Amino acid sequence: MATAAIDLKNIQQGRSLWQDAMSRLKQNHLAVFGLGVVIFLILIAIFADLIAPYSYEEQNLALGASPPSADHWLGTDTLGRDLFTRILYGSRISLMVGILATTVALTIGVTWGTISGYLGGRVDMVMMRIVDILYALPFTIFIILLMVVFGRNIYLLFFAIGAVEWLTMARIVRSQVMSIRNQEYIDAVISMGLPRWRIITRHVLPNILGPVIVYTTLTIPGVILLESFLSFLGLGIQPPMSSWGSLISNGVETMEEYPWLLIFPALTLSVTLFSLNFLGDGLRDAIDPRSAKD
Amino acid sequence: MPILQVDDLSISFRTREGRIEAVKNASFTLDKGQTLGIVGESGSGKSVLCYSLLGLLPMPPASIDSGKVMFDDKDLLKASKQSVRHIRGNRISMIFQDPMTSLNPYLTIGTQLVESLTIHKGMNKQSARRRAIQSMDEVGIANPEKRINSYPHELSGGMKQRVMIAMALLTEPEILIADEPTTALDVTIQAQILRLIKQLQHEHKVGLIFISHDLGVIAGIADEVLVMEKGDIVEAGPVEDIFYQTRHPYTKKLLASIPNTSKPGKYRYKRDNTSSPLLKLQEVKTYFHKSHSFLQSRSEEIKAVDNVSLEIYPGETLGLVGESGSGKSTIGRSIIKLVDIHEGKVIFKEQDILSTGHYQFDRLRHEIQMIFQDPYSSLNPRMTVFDTLAEAISLRNKQNNKNITPEVIQLMEDVGLNANQIRKYPHEFSGGQRQRIAIARALALRPRLIIADEPVSALDVTIQAQILDLLLTLVKKYQLTMIFISHDLSVVRYISDRVAVMQSGKIVETGETEALFSSPQHDYTRSLIRAIPIPDPEQERLRQAATTIT
Fold first, then answer.
1. How far apart (Å, rounded) are the C-alpha atoms in residues A121 and A118?
2. Domain A26-47+74-288 has CATH 1.10.3720.10
């Protein structure tokens, strides 16, 4: 076997889908940029206490709403509070809502959708009808109900939002699983006698990740805005705490007189959204071996 | 005076990997009433060539690098979009490969037929409708006045292709381009459609460009033939020259690869009469339910497999042939419990598969493995070859994980793949190589019985021959028993020791391969065998003449 020199070392090293995905992700500059921004935002949120030049609740009524200046980089709100500081602190709530609520939605949605789509038949029928019923419940009533039963609690808020957002995720996952389920490679591993959970984790889930990741990156900004809506109803965070959502909805009210109160929080959210989308698209391509540029 | 003249036509595609030349310096002419056959394997550029004649190529990524297409003293490549649109579907018509997708499912066929007449001929609705009915009658659709109001899904595949032909001929075109018009059809239907195309072409005196990968079909229909390989026209000439005085090595290779129905296969197994069957099906019935709603428990039953009994002896290869919907695949899937059997017994190695418990069956399962039709969907796109094969090996051999790598390499070599490709993903392989991987995966479990469900139907003819020979070698080497399911009788004859013919869920005839092919007993078997096109122009003409008389 001298002619067919087999690179044994190369073979034994093996490469997993994830290692491959990481190396492909690194080649995608836009995605790396997105990842960088997201990490940067998370760090800012964690160290808000150290960075913030002012206190988020300290009012300066004499100052009132002032445009950006050397003292107050992004200006102040109508109560004279530093906008930069409030955005910093707001990122804590907003990112936490975004990440935790989406994680909840992702976990429930993927599990539910996978079981429903993979088993099919009557199980699928019953599970999807439950989803339909939950869809039909008015969202606010559902959350108010949760709040009434469990008391108002910021973590419960995350859970409540997640508990609503998973419905769409479950539907997307189910339809993806159903189409993968009909692929012949699933039949092949069934006839090889692979246990069901390994079929799902090794063969089904990796193949539905693309749409799931894309939908996740769309869910996060949606969830961040949803929080502001709940706060507006008095169900979310309470003043003087701030979140991006509440800053934006306050900014809308005073848009004509003090436009910076809308522009800066909205800009922050947009940058986050873009970064997440770049990252999401990058991840989707990275986990698909077919997109490799060799 | 040719009606179509193509000169030095070159087409390329821009892709991420760079420029791909799909058609290189193609030149040919087409006369009135003549049939030009274009043969080639997938990727040879035969479809691209014809699509470019009608301006149907997406540009970009496609671009025309050089050449002229002269039709009616005009260069179609330089003509305005408007004038091409007027020619397309009017003076040059096209029939596509898949009749299932080339008709709009939301419109009645009448609406679709009338449309082309009102657009191109400026007819009013009533007269267009009369003309449509007349043309449906012409393509042999019974009861056209009623059929004209049906939707595409209400018609069978053959009927739909007839509608497509009617539609293509409605405007009385001068040129008809048929892109693999019978590839998606069953062999008996294919014979009918080919006869119809030929007869109509004769009546209407159209110039026909007929694209096919099937040399048997080409032998029967074409006057002139172009053989294409990787964008080049490697050989061109009258059909007899191509078949009898073949010059180019590629054409020779193509002709040599066809499993010829008139010649028997290589491997013949002698059955030991004393041995007991490895697998026995006893009155197996597999029904599918077409349920209507959630609450309605009573539903329509489709008898996919209807009372089938079969015995397969160790070491033999049983060919299972039938047309689409005959239930041949369902039998295969029933044996390995991919679908539930309604009634009957499946006995493997003296054990009733259906009554064994879950865990026992998993062990038996390793001994029965399946090879699937579509190599593009039978491998997980997110797993490397190594992972795919290692997974199968570790299922059989749960303790010893150390020796997996040498075993994977051994398997790769068994199926003729280079072990250096072990870390590649399925999409980096060609169709034939993927099928080899699928075969390796099935072998990894050291099965006794292989169920091969149309394993070569999705492959080109030269690749098909390689895979068939690989299967024969492996069957011998590992003393495998095989059920070979196929719609293609020539392939079945090449590989099988015994053949079972299926029709609508029932086995109508079984017999030793040669006996069955030389003297078929059942009418259906006879009509199947008669319908196969022979890749030899003279014999094919004789066959066609014989079938039209009967």
1. 9
2. yes
